Amino acid sequence: MFHKILIANRGEIALRIIRACKEMGIKSVAVHSEADHEALHVSLADESICIGPTASADSYLNMKAIISAAEIADADAIHPGYGFLSENAEFAEVCDQCGITFIGPTAENMRRMGDKISARKTVTEAGVPILPGTNKSIETVEEALSIAEGIGYPVIIKASAGGGGRGMKIVHSPASLGNALATARTEAQAGFGKADVYIEKFCEHPRHVEIQVLGDQHGNVIHLGERDCSIQRRHQKLIEESPCPVLTPELREEMGGCAVAAAKAVGYSSAGTVEYLLDTDGSFYFMEMNTRVQVEHPVTEMVTGVDIIKEQINSAAGIPLRYKQEDITITGHAIECRINAEDPEKFTPFPGKIVGYHTPGGMGVRIESAMYDQYTVLPHYDSMIGKLIVHADTREEAIKRMACALDEYIIEGIKTTIPFHQKMMANTDFIAGDFDTNFLERVKI
Fold first, then answer.
1. Angle at 113 between CA 109 and CA 116, to 5 degrees
2. Where does the chain hold its CATH 3.30.1490.20 domain(s)?
3. Among the options 292, 338, 366, 401, which is catalytic?
4. pLDDT tens digits, residue range 212-235?
5. Is 207-442 CATH 3.40.50.720?
6. 3-class SS at 62?
């Protein structure tokens, strides 16, 4: 087992990893930008090192600075959390070259599953359903028109290296395909340094359902059930829950089995997530694989009792999984609300100083946040400042528990998305489980 782990991240996920390290008897090292010197992860880690100026490019994305910090601190492993360098294959390789364990999948895993065209090829060979489309980059309008005609409109153009909705265009007719292709390629190049895009059939009213997988270095892979992440705005998740309100045990087993097959196809040996689109007829299609721990991992932990971060660390240390598939059971229902420092009406960032702070409590309530009273939410980083997670015996009880917890959650001095979540917990369609990824485009909350 590692004696010291450097955490190449900030905010709540850095705290989450620090807590896991403490429980496992592992020393932790926090890194931080100059602007983050008063951040909670800096004070709670065993050691802390400043790695550069405020800008992420000069600090949290600065590979040389992070590796130097690990060497100075004599850390034998680096946990990247999510975001920043967590899915950067080059960083994983640099860690390996420097004799430092990267707590995550291999660089090869990240390259094969991080590139969506490559991932489509891989999972197809593993027998995982995919939407009709291309397994190669589209270069010309003529090629795109031919493919779209073959699979039928509407189609969607996606960046091969994409995420967060960038480089993604929905096309309903041949007339708009050429412009959409050019725009998608431009956005992909600007956002990811790679203009490759592909085309697939557009699923119009899907749910976004993902399967959590865990693998070790001994060929063992299991899944921990699913999360429904359909409540989104501009392809950004806002609410996640487990289990999915509409999934049957049979469908869960099928989707989970396909996720395990996809992970085994690449020799996956860490925490990861296989994401699907679930159609109204119960058909499901592979969308992508995230080769890192997810923001929403706590809802899975709440219903399974499995500590995903600890298992991720164990796997990186070469320790076999402590669970077999038959050990995994889904108990009760969990919901997570992402709390963002944003105007809840416009969803625009709202940084500033917190002048009053009180967190909710009670049975089945969990807070993942690095906020505290008098802390200044910085404008330089992601606007998510916390996650509120609840667990109860049933979905109905979980929604009521979340509503109570949101009422107790006090953050003064800045605007947050708490009012939005309060309205969602009272929305009759949400309560009934009647929603898809387009819900917030149709319904004014």
1. 155
2. 132-201
3. 292
4. 999 999 999 999 999 999 999 988
5. no
6. coil
